[in-house]
Amino acid sequence: MRRLRDQRGQTAVFVVFLLPALLGIGALAIDVGFWYAQKRNVQNAADAAALAGAARLPNGMPAAQSAAQATYAVNGTGTDSVTVAFPRADTVSVTARRPATVFLAGVVGIGPVVVEGRAEASVRSFARIENDYDLLPWGVMRQSFVPGQSYAIYMDSSSANNGALALPTVNGSGCSSTGSASDYRDTIQGADVACPVSIGDVLPTKSGTMAGPTRQGLDQRTGGTFQPISSIVQFEPDGGATILNENSPQLVKLAIVESLSGSTTWPGGSGSVRVVGFGYFVISGTNSNASEVYGVFIRAQVPPTAGTTTAWDGTSTMFTVQLTR
To answer: Tens of pLDDT along 146-200?
Structure first.
């Protein structure tokens, strides 16, 4: 019995000796979990701010900085310190720091703690669009497009060529030419998907009167009703745009083209044009028989899965933004 009492006493001394360490480990585990959650929140806010800033970068660095700071304010807290920088002409960097509360770890001398989040987002230009039902068989001649302004994206009575393109469409594992009116109509309505189109490609025009297939394709695509532009996209004072309904069938991608001689005049007869870029438009309506189709030009980010991208050159009419750090 005496030996058992001695062992109990040794155990009690051992527990008393380790108790502060055990309490410190437990306190640290609780606080570390809280700090991790705070760091994740700061990082998410920095990611969102960088993306928002990059989406406004084509409108200038002041617009990008304002958008990044405003977005962070929505997702962060008032105690966070935020720095917005531009390490490259196509990139917005956001660094955010937050003082994290020390609950129990201070007992063992830990504190103060600051958690940090860093994010970079870059603008990328579209050099190629592939497997996209929103790429329609129309081309618009290169010009100085203004966000929020309406343009004629198809004109049946303008000349022998009217903005229609004979886009090849995906057929099994390959591509097939689209010579018929039904192919043209099906590409508009989304029953056919255009083959990949890259900047520099030469595409044949589709001459002739196509008002009937145009009307049929648009009726199938939109259900015969055009939604107000304001329900699809919101234009900002700085020229940027916020997409409100990314699934709208009126949101389309069009090839920006020029003649093979480099002019902005459509070729006569059966000719071809060269792709020099891509534009993002929202179809706003047609005339009574759909011989004219109008679209509002947008300068906004688009889903990065829509096509391959290259570094932004500062002049592209269509771009996406991607987190690069």
So the answer is: 889 999 999 876 566 778 999 988 887 678 776 788 989 999 999 999 999 999 9
pTM for the model? 0.76
In this prediction, residue 248 has a pLDDT band, given cuts at 50, 70 and 90, of very high
For 233, residues 6+ apart whose C-beta sits below 8 A from its C-beta are 241, 242, 243, 244, 251, 282, 296, 298, 300
Query: pLDDT by residue (tens digit) across 267-277?
Result: 877 789 999 99
The CA-CA-CA angle for residues 237, 241, 244, to 5°, reads: 125
Helix (H) or strand (E) holding 97: strand 91-100
What is the dihedral angle through the alpha carbons of 177, 179, 180, 183, rounded to the nearest 10 degrees? 30
The pLDDT, as a whole number, for residue 4 is 46
Annotated domain spans of the chain: 2-121, 130-323
Tell me how far apart the terminal alpha carbons of the chain are, to the nearest angstrom. 67
Phi (first) and psi of residue 184, to 5 degrees: -60, -45
3-state helix, strand, coil in the chain (%, to 5): 30, 35, 35
The single residue listed with the structure tokens 């679209």 is: 295
